[in-house]
Give the backbone structure.
Amino acid sequence: MADKKIGHITAINGNMIEVAFKDSVIQNEVGYVLIGNERLKSEVIKITNNTAYLQVYEITKGLKVGDKVEFTGELLSVTLGPGILSQVYDGLQNPLPALAEAHGFFLPRGVVLDPIDEKKKWHFTPTAKVGDTLYRGSPLGWVPEGIFQHKIMVPFDLNGEYTLVSVVKEGDYDLTETMGVIKDPKGEEIKLTMSFEWPVKIPITAYNKKMVPSEPMVTKVRIVDTFFPVCKGGTYCIPGPFGAGKTVLQQLTSRYADVDIVILAACGERAGEVVETLREFPELSDPKTGRSLMERTIIICNTSSMPVAAREASVYTATTLGEYYRQMGLDVLILADSTSRWAQAMRELSGRLEEIPGEEAFPAYLESRIAEFYERAGYVELPDGSHGSMTIGGTVSPAGGNFEEPVTQATLKVVGAFHGLSRARSDARKFPAIDPIDSWTKYKGIIPAEKVREAHNILRRGDEVHQMMMVVGEEGTSVDDFIYYLKGEYLDTVYLQQNGFDAVDAVSDPERQEFIFNKIHTILYTDFHFEAKPDARQFFNELRQLTLDWNYIQMGADEFVAQEKKIDAHIQAKTKA
Amino acid sequence: MRKVYNKILSIVGNVISVRAEGVSNEELAEVSTRRGTSLAKVIKIDNDLVSLQVFAGSRGISTDDEVRFLGSPMKVSFSDNMLGRIFNGSGEPRDNGPALNENLIEIAGPSVNPSKRIIPNRMIRTNIPMIDVFNSLVVSQKLPIFSVSGEPYNELLARIALQAEVDMIILGGIGLKFDEYMYFRDELEKGGALSRSIFFMHTASDPVVEGLMVPDLCLAVAEQFALKGKDVLVLLTDMTNFADAMKEIAITMEQVPSNRGYPGDLYTQLASRYEKAVDFEGAGSVTILAATTMPGDDVTHPVPDNTGYITEGQFYLRNGRIEPFGSLSRLKQQVNKDTRDDHRAIMDGMIQLYAQYLETEEKRSMGFRMSDWDKKLLKYGGLFEKEMMDLSVNISLEDSLNNGWDILSQCFNPDETGFRSGLIEKYWPGEKKTKVKKADQEISKEEKKEEKPLEKEETNKDEKTTNKTKSVVKKSKNKKEVSKSSKK
């Protein structure tokens, strides 16, 4: 290893170090600070003259001027291969459970473990034949990983045409063994194993074309699926002040969303929240397959107390893993919580680099970085004609709950749906606290858009009457207007809100949503006759109670039908002849 | 022997710089002046130019004073001898006891591996209904109390400290007024908790920078005790002072400020402290309660705002009451499913109705005529504020829940409350569950009056029986019902 390039630290400022080097360094290459037995991973982020600026992914306590830095010549990369599913990684793909086994309660500094167990045997079935022409991303064969066929592919950085020279027979292999050999047009042979590396900040584009997302991604949250749907391959954001339920909403989505793989990027948030997922998912079963939920989940966990530079990387790590599985024709959902922390990590770094600050001291390139991140989502057609998708949902934690701040605004420009959470709704314990008036979507959902718009109109009208009532009082409102208000409230309470703790109400599948929505739509457009307002209030209170109870009953049960009859009878009594 | 440097190149704010070699990042140094010695910490190294933040402040430092590097980062002694002791922000004794130097541990150590954490599941009962019922406190939670200067947040902290079931209390004061410090000491002494407490006290008269170390000292010691199996409660007051001290250093170091002068890494700095709250698998736990004053009662101020994103909820203390809106315990759902089956329903239902009450109250103050429904809400709001929100109410969780149903039944018909029918069947007080007319309510109110003495007797009894289980409560409730029906 004599040819390893070595530099020396000349200055230390927080998690940024300046390193004097002699020969050459590559922008964004990885370097290791050598201190005792520890090797602290760091990344080159700026080069001037003979000084490289590196951000260190660990705590810089104890570093000295003159300490050695070893440059690797490689960009920050992740390892791709079978065994990633159900793992818990930090932002740099260090497996946390393995770290805990080796080092106990605390996260030691400068320890790097293999992201994937190299010694584990996988049962390989070849699909490509000797003589086949292969491109980047073409499968050699597959191994079973959980419920999926994990394709063993030609690495994505091998551009050009290759011919398969040999491939191993069906059998059990580990990650160190050569699975096949390919030959480029010049006759040079390349050995392939089951895993390879890919730099996280470069998107994987080994697909034919990107397509417009059109298939709804069902989340089983009524307000999302019916009113503000998201499509597979789309992007959406959930901004909201603290305590408005961003994380709870994401947790529910991660459980019930109708996708193959969920990648949770806990980016600079509380460790406790990750722990919940971590401990509960293995126990929960996937509603689709009946297997443990953890089998379809990857957690990238860089919580707020972990080094800030790794937080910046964690979002890219998550998207790269997502793109890898998308290449296998799977539907992937990435939930990033929260992108504001990621933006703050960029801000901290930018401050240390003494760049000229933009708005609220965020760097000028904030918008383009956010756009780049969301643009990695997409619904793609793969070379074999099948489709894969990667949907990205990011929470935003705007300072002071004010959406007029740089991160929220930059995000809104690039996403396809906006689920704005409101403090007023969460204070009133309305869950989910998605604001039905302010939120929007560009995607089509499971219910015809026309009907949704009609329901939405009632909601808006009811809201207007409510605003008016705040000014002129109830007595100044006509009975007809008052009914609009009650109808709006009714729709809000029984349909937009969901009891996240109730086993039945928390999960509303599309059939149920359609059925109940149609029923409620009919009610909303029924003309009722009331003598006076208390009369109307009484009627809707009772109706609400009946419908709420209906929400708690499993669809298809006898009680479900019985309850529906009760509701019908209740309505009949007051319908205008 | 470490080298001594006696040429200080610059003194700006509380930061000094010297030319020195072989110094490591975050190393400690001793600065000796004519007035005594102070500790200082390395915060930036640029070639041989080393910047240090002086804990005692730079006032009185001469450019030829001595700077001696100690060769290691800040450490604090850890032993059982610390119990009952009081230290300052540099970890030196503040009482007249001996200095402790054995068994030194590093402060601000590495963070806990998330995969080694467990889901918090033990409730800490405080006998404050606004906490126990609506926002339960949970072991290993980190929770700030948002309030403004003048609110009794220190009183609330002291009360929670005394009533909460924990093994140890570590109190960190940052910029605390001297009389508040004495108040804490006296209260804990009165409650007999001093012998299981450790104080790290930085008062308003001490140099600002010294307060920066207080949270790290408290949490490093707490962590060690927790590893030894103790449930530790850490109280930090006031974290806004901590943030302000950080701001001061950042500005002295000419960092680009992000928001109102606070450094861009405010979130990270606060988080690395709060995230020390943990429940260790097979050992003890650290729970953090911190007072955060909001300058100008503005929750969007960077300090409370960043804190809210880090902590697992928050209590708003306003007008001497814990506000039901905005106050939130994110971990409550981990524990309130196992208390009583009506806990969650009461928790949400009562707040929803209280929100409607506030709206009505607003309408009333604008002079609108009140409908029957409005009148019911007004009555409800009054009762709720008096019997649930008042901080002087000191009753167990089960009593609070029963009290909640009582309040509801005094004000509403069952179908107006939006509760699930099953729960109304089970808990709605009185037999006539389908009472509709107001007159009936008046009657039920009278019944209540007659019953009062009896009820009181029972709550007294309840208070005596410690470790009440669900069944006991149920029994007492049944008894109540029996006695009621027998009267008829």
Observations:
- The first strand of chain B starts at residue 4 and ends at 5.
- Chain B has three domains: 4-73, 77-335, 343-487.
- Residues 343-487 of chain B form one domain.
- Chain B touches chain A through 84 residues (CB under 8 Å).
